[in-house]
Amino acid sequence: MFSIIIKKMASNNRNFFVLFACVMSLVFLQLVSAKLTIQPESNSWWIQLHSTEPAKYIKVSYKTSSGQRVSVTAKRPSWDSAHNYFTCSAPAEIPNNALTTFTLIKMNGKRQTMSMKFYNRNSVSSSGASSHSGGHSHGSNPSSSGSGHKIAYATWYDQTAAGTPVCGFKTKYCGAPSDQFEGLGERVGPCSGGSASSTCQNCQRGYCYGPKCVAPHCKHGGCNKKLKIWCVDTAQGACKTTKPIIMTINNICPKRHPCNTCKGGENPCARKDHLDLCESTFFAIANHQPRAKGLKIAFELVH
Fold first, then answer.
1. β-pairing, 217-218 with 245-249?
2. Residue range 35-132, CATH number
3. Which residues share a beta bridge with 86?
4. How far is it, in rounded angstroms, from Cα 189 to Cα 208?
5. Among the CATH numbers 2.40.40.10, 3.40.50.720, 1.20.120.80, 3.40.50.920, which is that of 143-302?
6. Would you give the end-to-end CA distance of the chain in angstroms?
7. What's this model's pTM, rounded to 2 decimal places?
8. pLDDT tens digit sequence for 171-230
9. Distance CA 180, CA 195 (A)
10. Residue 287 contacts by C-beta under 8 Å, 6 or more apart in sequence?
């Protein structure tokens, strides 16, 4: 009789542990659910995505304003070794708030499909929850923290696509302050001339060029200046590290460049607190750009 009771207890314990393991597996799957976010660099002609779960690529499908179904593949840029960022151009304009389907092709080959409306900073998780962070924030002057350093906002650019830097040299950690930038001890510009934005392709299409699209001429104030920069952004997951790096200024972001003037009030180089960092610099300190205005960073001039 005693042996029968022991066997029943053992069997019940096994059933309990099997049930417990199943429950914990479900909890774990919820904790590691992928979250997909439409990055601030996106617009109706350019798609940039961030996935918390690494993937090979992401298939994007949406309907145009005429009802045509369009599919395109967003691929990982060469600088992202972690397989979390995916970009592509849109072959047809994406209507504002268009319900868009995203299929993640995971590293193990499995697929995961999520849907959300297409607008900047909207996000969706594999559990189906969708969220949208706050709107744009504007600023003009770099502020001081009271600790000897100043605050600025940084976006990033593809150094290869940008061509030859204004200062004439390339380096690993580099960047381009706006020609209005304050905090270098001298004026960066000024920049003058250049085409009107109407002579270039519409920058809402995700690019800006043309045979008559001429950049303004800039003086080289600020070239070769070195800044110690580090991430101080409080947005979730924005900072990769808070350790500083030393970057060298080798370019300028002109307020009057046609690819900037066409952005109107969103022209980043019209601000006095804007740094446009090449991608190797930006992603050395950050995981992503949390808002259109840029990543909040601290900086000090290295003498």
1. unpaired
2. 2.60.40.1220
3. 49
4. 22
5. 2.40.40.10
6. 87
7. 0.57
8. 889 998 988 888 787 777 777 777 776 666 656 555 566 666 777 777 777 888 899 999
9. 19
10. 50, 84, 237, 238, 239, 240
